Amino acid sequence: MAAQIPIEYVRSLGGVARTFVAGSEICGYGDDMPRLLFVLNGWAASSKMLPNGTRFVTEFVLRGDMISTSLAALSRETVRAITNVTVTAFPDFTALPKVEAPTYFYRIVIAELVRHQVRMSERLANIGRRDALERTGYMLLELGTRVGISRDCANSEYFDCPLTQADIGDAVGLSTVHINRVLRDMREAGLLSFRNGIVAFLDRARLADLVDFDESDFDTTVI
User: Fold this and answer.
1) 42 is in which domain, residue-wise?
2) Range 146-161 average pLDDT
3) At what angle do helices 132-147 and 165-172 cross, to 10 degrees?
4) Same-domain check for residues 11 and 95
5) What is the pLDDT at residue 206?
6) Are strands 55-61 and 192-195 parallel, antiparallel or unpaired?
C-alpha cells in the first residue's frame, strides 16, 4: 500500500476536526481562509466544471491524503465528499504569514504535495496516452494501491470502492455508457470485476503489465 500521512501524529497536533456528509462540499475555489485538511476517513473527489457543464474529476481524495484549500482555489477546483468524510484542519502555513509549525509537520506537508504531483503526472499520461481500457484499469489499480488491497480466504484480491460508473467516467474522460462497456470487457477478459461497490482483481499482475502500472510510483514516504 502507498505511504500515507502518520494520522496519529497529525491528530496529536490538535487540529479542528470536522465531518462532511456524503455529497457535501468540503472546499471550493471561493474559500477565503487557507487551510490544510488531512483526511482521517472517507472518500472525496476534487473536480473542475468545464465550460460545457461537464465535470472532470482531477483526483480522488482518500484516507491519509491532504487537501490544500489554497491549491484548490488556484486550480479552481471543488472538493466534494463521496462518502461521509472526517478531516482535521490546520491553518495553511504555506499561504499565511507568521504561522509556525513543527519541523516534522513541514515534512509531512511537503511529502503530500509531492504525492499529489506524482498522481497528477500519471493522470495526464493516463488521459493523453492510454486507451479506454488502459486508463480505466490504471486508475482502479492506483486506487487499490492507495486504499490497500484485501484478500479473502480464497486469496482473491479486492478493495471496497464507493464510486459510481459516472464517477469513474468523469475521472478518465469517458461516458457512463463507455465505462460500462469497458468494465464488461475487463470482466470478460478475466482482468477485474466491479460489482456492488467492490473491485475484485481477477488477474492483477496481468492487468498491471497490460497498463504499465508500477505501484512503487505511489510510495513517497515521509522522511
Assistant:
1) 7-99
2) 87
3) 110
4) yes
5) 96
6) unpaired
In this structure, what C-alpha cell is assigned to residue 15?
487540529
Tell which wins on pLDDT, 31 or 80: 80
Pairing of strands 85-91, 78-81: unpaired
61, part of any domain: yes
Q: Is the pLDDT of residue 101 over 80?
A: no
| Element (DSSP H or E) covering residue 59 | strand 55-61
Amino acid identity of residue 30, one-letter, is G
User: Picking from 61-65, 128-132, 194-198, which range would have the lowest pLDDT averaged per residue?
Assistant: 128-132
C-alpha–C-alpha distance, residues 82 and 164, integer Å: 10
51-66 pLDDT, tens digit per residue, is: 888 899 999 999 999 9
Quote the number of domains for the chain: 2
Using CA atoms, how far residue 11 sits from 21, 45, 89, 101, 153, in Å, is 20, 23, 10, 14, 34
> Are 88 and 73 spatial neighbours (Cβ–Cβ below 8 Å)?
no
Longest dimension (CA), the chain: 58
109 domain-assigned = no
